[in-house]
């Protein structure tokens, strides 16, 4: 039980750190926009908070925030699945399968939500950044909390699961988004 609690606390801390870093990155980006407006450049080349970012530019602050939120959700779901499966007396195989199944559903919903926050032309580039970040943070948290050693097999499983969920969530968001 203490490992699950530690995992939840650690994921909350990571989500908070990612949110603070993202806010800092957005704030510094806002200062660059203000400098561009104050400079004597032609209006056609100046950027402002009202205009959309340049096509092809990924907002890394927002991506870090989405990585933190998705990781936090995954750890909370893993904690709840662990409690429920542990209360039923099922074995570790059942826990792993339930965590993978429910975690996959949460990832699809998370990537769908994340894709809705960017313009349609940037969905796939943005989701690749978020998927890589979620896979890396998942491996790091699992190695710290669950004492699971990092291996090529765990990396492959994390990448396949994240990119599969990214594809499904991104496809649905792209179909829904106008």
Give a count of the beta strands, DSSP E runs of length 2 or more: 0
Overall shape: it is globular
Unreliable segments (pLDDT under 50, ≥5 consecutive)?
33-51
Structural class from helices and strands? mainly alpha
H and E order: HHHHH
Mean pLDDT across the residues is 80
- The number of distinct structural domains comes to 1
Termini separation:
45 Å
What is the helix tally? 5
Instruction: Write down the Rg.
Output: 19 Å
Task: Provide keyphrases for this structure.
single chain; 178 residues; mainly alpha; 78% helix; globular
Helices, strands, pairings?
Layout: H1 2-38, H2 60-88, H3 92-116, H4 123-145, H5 152-176
Briefly summarize what is shown.
The protein is built from five helices and no strands. It has 178 residues and is mainly α. It has one domain.
What this model shows, in words?
- The protein is mainly α and 178 residues long.
- The protein has one domain (2-23, 58-176).
- The protein is 78% helix and 0% strand.
- It contains five helices and no strands.
- It has helices at 2-38, 60-88, 92-116, 123-145, 152-176.
- Helix 3 (92-116) runs antiparallel to helix 4 (123-145) and helix 4 (123-145) packs antiparallel against helix 5.
- The termini are far apart.
- The model is unreliable at 33-51 (pLDDT under 50).
């Amino acid at each position: 039980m203490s490992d699950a609690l530690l995992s939840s606390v650690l994921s909350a801390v990571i989500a908070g750190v990612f949110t603070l870093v993202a806010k800092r990155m957005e704030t510094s980006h806002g200062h660059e926009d203000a400098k561009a407006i104050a400079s004597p450049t032609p209006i056609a080349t100046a950027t402002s908070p009202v205009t959309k970012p340049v096509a092809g530019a990924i907002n890394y602050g927002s991506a870090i925030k989405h990585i933190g939120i998705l990781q936090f959700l995954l750890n909370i779901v893993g904690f709840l699945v662990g409690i429920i499966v542990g209360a039923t007396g099922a074995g570790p195989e059942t826990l792993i399968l339930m965590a993978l199944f429910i975690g996959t559903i949460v990832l699809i919903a998370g990537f769908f939500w994340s894709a809705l926050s960017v313009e349609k032309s940037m969905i796939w580039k943005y989701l690749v950044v978020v998927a890589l970040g979620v896979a890396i943070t998942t491996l790091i948290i699992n190695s710290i909390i669950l004492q699971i050693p990092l291996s090529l097999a765990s990396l492959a499983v994390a990448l396949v699961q994240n990119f599969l969920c990214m594809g499904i969530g991104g496809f649905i968001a792209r179909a829904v988004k106008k």
